[in-house]
Write a structure and sequence with these properties.
By secondary structure, this protein is of the alpha+beta class. The protein folds into 2 domains: 140 residues, PAS domain (Beta-Lactamase, 2-Layer Sandwich), CATH 3.30.450; 159 residues, Reverse transcriptase/Diguanylate cyclase domain (Alpha-Beta Plaits, 2-Layer Sandwich), CATH 3.30.70.270. It contains 11 helices and 12 strands. The strands form 3 sheets. Strands 2-1-5-4-3 form a 5-stranded antiparallel β-sheet. Strands 7-8-6-11-12 form a 5-stranded mixed β-sheet, with helices on both faces. A two-stranded antiparallel ribbon has the order 9-10. It is elongated, with a radius of gyration of 33 Å. The mean pLDDT is 89.
Length: 318
């Protein structure tokens, strides 16, 4: 190749490096900047004349120096490229995000590549850092993950109360029953409903009824432990699964909830509405054939509370 052709090729390569929409930085063995392309100038605000000859860590003090040195030394020693991706490290250099579409994030997500550069002698004396702006990809992925999480939440929760719906809490009960069968762990189930709920709807309207249901859901949440599972059985009926809890602990929880509901008053228009609940409690202290049997036992306790005058807790007697 003639000198003229070589000069043309070099000119073209330099033009490409300057205009390409990725960051290109060449560092020597002392981490001093030798090449600083237009992307880097625009994102950092530093003219190449201000960057060349300056150490990388002076220009970017936010970089984890020990980690970056290990990466570069590995590239130079082995002569093989190295990579980082935004999922593991959101960015190497904290550049602001100026893309209006992805303005939800204030920094640029980045993938990076470190390439060993061989000189004419065949030795590796420089490394090339390439920075890719993947903010669009990252933000889209995060939005998709958030949307999927919200869909999952909606598919497992009851819209009115925010408690788990029947499909989800019954699956949680099935898993807890399987744990009980394997490890002989304890668990209890509390089932209850709102007393005279039809009369509330008939007297004050369905909006008032919905308000009562939401108040009950709030009171359940106020009394739950992190490990407990609360759900809506349907209509005005609820369940609470209490893992690692015997019948005495479940009775204490149920009575505390009953008292909290009895003291609660909601206002609807000009009306003040008070209400009570009736509860049934069952646990796994005796052999059961399935998780469904625990539901049946708690339901029987609830029925006994209704028959006994309501606004009370009844432990299912085996």
């Amino acid at each position: 190749m003639s000198n003229s052709a070589e000069l043309n090729e070099l000119h073209w390569l330099l033009a490409i490096v300057q205009s390409i929409d990725v960051g290109v930085v060449v560092l020597d063995r002392d981490y001093r900047v030798e090449v600083w392309n237009t992307f880097m100038e625009n994102r950092s605000g530093l003219h190449p004349d201000k960057a060349r000859g300056v150490t990388f860590f002076t220009l970017f003090p936010e970089v984890d120096e020990d980690w970056f040195r290990r990466k570069v030394e590995s590239v130079m020693t082995l002569g093989t490229p190295s990579f980082t991706i935004w999922e593991q490290r959101p960015y190497l250099l904290r550049f602001k995000n100026y893309q209006p579409i992805t303005g939800l994030e204030d920094f640029m997500y980045q993938n990076t590549t470190l390439l060993p550069l061989k000189g004419t002698s065949g030795s590796i004396d420089q490394v090339c850092l390439i920075i890719y702006d993947v903010t669009d990809v990252a933000v889209n992925r995060r939005q998709l993950q958030a949307a999927n999480a919200e869909l999952q939440r909606l598919s497992s929760t009851d819209r009115l109360t925010g408690l788990y719906n029947r499909g989800h809490w019954e699956e949680m009960l099935r898993l807890e029953y399987a744990r009980h069968r394997r490890y002989d762990s304890q668990a209890a189930l509390v089932m209850f409903d709102i007393d005279h709920f039809k009369a509330i709807n008939d007297s004050y309207g369905h909006q008032a009824g919905d308000g009562v249901i939401q108040q009950v859901a709030d009171l359940i949440r106020e009394n739950l432990r992190d490990s407990d599972v609360a759900g809506r059985y349907g209509g005005e009926e609820f369940v609470v699964l209490l893992p690692d809890t015997d019948k005495q602990g479940a009775l204490i929880f149920a009575e505390r909830l009953r008292q909290a509901v009895e003291l609660r008053e909601i206002r609807h228009e000009q009306h003040r509405i008070r209400f009570t609940i009736s509860l049934g409690v069952a646990d796994l202290s005796v052999p059961t054939s399935s998780h469904a049997q625990l539901i049946e036992w708690a339901d029987s306790g609830l029925y006994a509370s209704k028959a006994g005058g309501r606004n009370r807790v009844t432990l299912y007697q085996h």
